[in-house]
Design goal:
The protein is α/β, with parallel strands linked by helices. It is built from 13 helices and 10 strands. The protein folds into 3 domains: 149 residues, Glutamyl-tRNA reductase, N-terminal domain (Beta Polymerase, domain 2, 2-Layer Sandwich), CATH 3.30.460.30; 140 residues, Rossmann fold (3-Layer(aba) Sandwich), CATH 3.40.50.720; 83 residues, no CATH class.
């Protein structure tokens, strides 16, 4: 049996190609059945996310993995350049790297491990994973855990939105119950608010020059709409302010911020200015208990964190290579086991058959003589078997394991 992985991801195909091959949750069980019906296929898993559509399978040794997987994906000449196929060791390495978030668009992001575990559970529930592939996937989850525990690959934010959340937590300790004011409702401020809201912020106020857009964004968070002409009255209630309006001048002056902090009785206020040109007077950072970060400040945090993750990624790659080698050794050792048992069984069958064939010539034997015959013949068999069995065990972790096993099977007609 052999392992193979095939599909497309953000490295090999644009979103237009990925979406054509995407598999929705509602049709996944049926697609797993169709995958398992491919010739020579034993097990199968389908991982479909916004960044990848990949198949992981185990097949008979004589099956054509590439043809099987390309046929399932209905890959024509147009898509062929975008589809990758890995077999054997490369397939194992790929699954270990995916689970460890080394193959992600944002290295170290945690979502892919959860998505892979969900795909595994779906395949498991469908009876599509129960052998070699099962073993590889559970090993991949162990590798991902080791990478998380032994490196800092997931410690730091690597997007402007996540950086804002990370900085907010440094200021407030916890985001639980905090309130956000969005000044301007652009996509970037919406994304930052979404991350902060997910992190525990309880209330979102939205103000925007275009009222309809304010309504649209407020619905996303079940938030409150604030009139753009009078939003400064809401400022003292906001723990976090995200400014991204298209105003050509400052919409918040240093005096606005100072007054708001005073009304808050010096409770800290976090201001995120992601507008260009800037919306908040930079001097607001001089106000005690006001913490102002603009887009360049946030990007600097991202760059520092990316550098940290690159170093952690190198260490994670070393762990993956180590675990791939360890997994291969386990497979090879296990593959030698049945050959050893088969050899011992064959020798014992020959021994017992010969003793029985000669029994009529020996005449009646006392219990002591019976025991002596058993000991003599077993001793001879064990000495003959010792050489090939020792060699099988010695070669178990060697690249030449399979040829040695096959040769012994042929020699002893196992």
């Amino acid at each position: 049996m052999k392992l193979a992985v095939a599909g497309v991801n953000h490295r090999t195909a644009p979103v237009g190609v990925r979406e054509r091959l995407a598999v929705g949750a509602s049709v996944l069980p049926g697609e797993l059945e169709r995958l398992r019906a491919q010739p020579g296929l034993r097990e199968g898993l389908i991982l479909s996310t916004c960044n990848r559509v990949e198949l992981a399978v185990s097949l008979d040794d004589d099956a054509d993995a590439e043809r099987c997987l390309r046929d399932f994906l209905s890959v024509g000449e147009e898509l062929r350049p975008h589809v990758f196929v890995h077999e054997g060791r490369e397939a194992v390495r790929h699954l270990f790297r995916v689970a460890s978030s080394l193959d992600s668009m944002v290295v170290g992001e945690p979502q892919i491990l959860g998505q892979l575990k969900q795909a595994y559970q779906t395949a498991k529930d469908a009876g599509a994973v129960n052998g070699l592939l099962d073993n590889v996937l559970t090993s991949a989850f162990g590798v991902a855990k080791r990478v998380r525990n032994e490196t800092e690959i997931g410690e730091n934010a690597v997007s402007v939105s996540y950086a804002a959340v990370e900085l907010a937590r440094e200021i407030f300790g916890s985001l639980a119950g905090s309130k956000i004011l969005l000044i301007g409702a652009g996509k970037m401020s919406e994304l930052a608010a979404r991350h902060l809201h997910t992190g525990g912020a309880s209330q979102v106020y939205v103000t925007n020059r275009t009222y309809e857009r304010a309504v649209e964004v407020a619905k996303l968070f079940k938030g409150w709409i604030v009139d753009y002409e009078s939003f400064k009255q809401t400022l003292p209630h906001a723990d976090i302010v995200i400014a991204s309006s298209g105003a050509p001048e400052y919409v918040l002056t240093v005096e606005d911020v100072r007054s708001a902090v005073r009304a808050r009785r010096n409770k800290p206020m976090f201001l995120i200015d992601i507008a260009v040109p800037r919306n908040i007077d930079p001097r607001a950072n001089e106000v005690d208990n006001a913490f102002l970060y603009d887009i360049d400040d946030l990007q600097a945090v991202v760059e520092r964190n990316l550098a940290g993750r690159r170093g952690a990624a190198d260490e994670a790659e070393r762990i993956v290579e180590e675990e791939v080698a360890r997994f291969e050794e386990r497979l090879k050792t296990r593959s030698a086991g049945p050959a050893i048992v088969g050899l011992q069984t064959a020798f014992e069958r020959i021994r017992a058959g010969e003793v029985e064939r000669q029994r009529s010539k020996l005449g009646p034997l006392t219990p002591e003589q019976e025991e002596a015959v058993e000991a003599l013949t077993r001793g001879i068999v064990n000495k003959i078997a010792h050489g090939p069995i020792s060699e099988l065990r010695r070669q178990a972790a060697s690249p030449e394991t399979m040829p040695v096993i096959e040769a012994i099977k042929r020699i002893f007609k196992l």
